[in-house]
Design a protein that fits this description.
alpha+beta, elongated, five-stranded antiparallel sheet
């Protein structure tokens, strides 16, 4: 059955097959060398951007850790070296619309004079959809950064898989009290920690954890905790 491209990873897998195998089926698929160039450019762009995003996430976390040490670390703690400067990837033209281009090409290939299901399998067009991940294997990763004031903080969640929302819990350091801070959808959101009367007016160290949700039920395992200090 035709493949369903749900994610960037799905598209990369298909483009990888087409970069390798499309030259063997020019006639059958009514394809051209320009198609291979376009496939290659889109594949290189997506791979470069995914790699850069992972690097940028780590870069941000490195500076957040340094900021936390400077703000309320133990006196005398050495400050880690700054991460090396980020260098943006060089992208090939065309840029926007890789998914639309892929779908348009696939329709044209399938209308080619010698196209078959077997050829489509070599090109990633006629493949079964990627099965959904086992919830038991799903554990999100998070990046958390405190705002300058008002007990605010931001959370970025990676590895959400089929979750349709996620819940943020906060546990004050030195306590086992779990506080539901809020829920969100998408990749990132801002939240506010509401201090207890004993905490009000002073910085509060909290441990932040994210639990994915799907269809109003917990989905997968909770994330590892990230410790931050929220500021009044």
């Amino acid at each position: 059955m035709p493949s369903q491209i749900r994610t960037v990873a799905d598209l990369i897998a298909m483009l990888t097959l087409q970069k390798t195998n499309l030259p063997s089926y020019f006639v059958q698929c009514n394809a051209t060398a320009a198609d291979v160039t376009e496939v290659t450019n889109d594949l290189n762009n997506l791979n470069a951007l995914l790699s850069f995003i992972e690097l940028a996430d780590g870069y941000k976390k490195g500076f957040v850790d340094i900021k936390n040490i400077v703000f309320d670390g133990i006196i005398g703690t050495p400050i880690p070296a700054f991460p090396p400067a980020l260098v943006a990837p060089a992208l090939a033209l065309p840029l926007a619309g890789a998914l639309t281009r892929a779908r348009n090409r696939n329709r044209r290939f399938k209308a080619g004079p010698g196209y078959t299901v077997a050829i489509g399998e070599f090109l990633g067009i006629e493949t079964d959809p990627t099965p959904p991940p086992d919830p038991g294997d799903v554990t999100p990763t998070i990046l958390v950064a405190a705002a300058k004031a008002d007990y605010g903080f931001a959370v970025i969640v990676n590895g959400r898989e089929q979750a349709d929302s996620w819940r943020v819990d906060a546990i004050p350091v030195g306590s086992n009290t779990r506080i539901a801070v809020g829920t969100a959808t998408g990749k990132s959101a801002d939240f506010i920690y509401h201090p207890s009367p004993a905490e009000a007016g002073q910085p509060v160290q909290i441990r932040v954890e994210v639990q994915l949700r799907k269809n109003n039920a917990d989905y997968g395992h909770p994330s590892a905790e990230e410790r931050i200090t929220v500021n009044p």
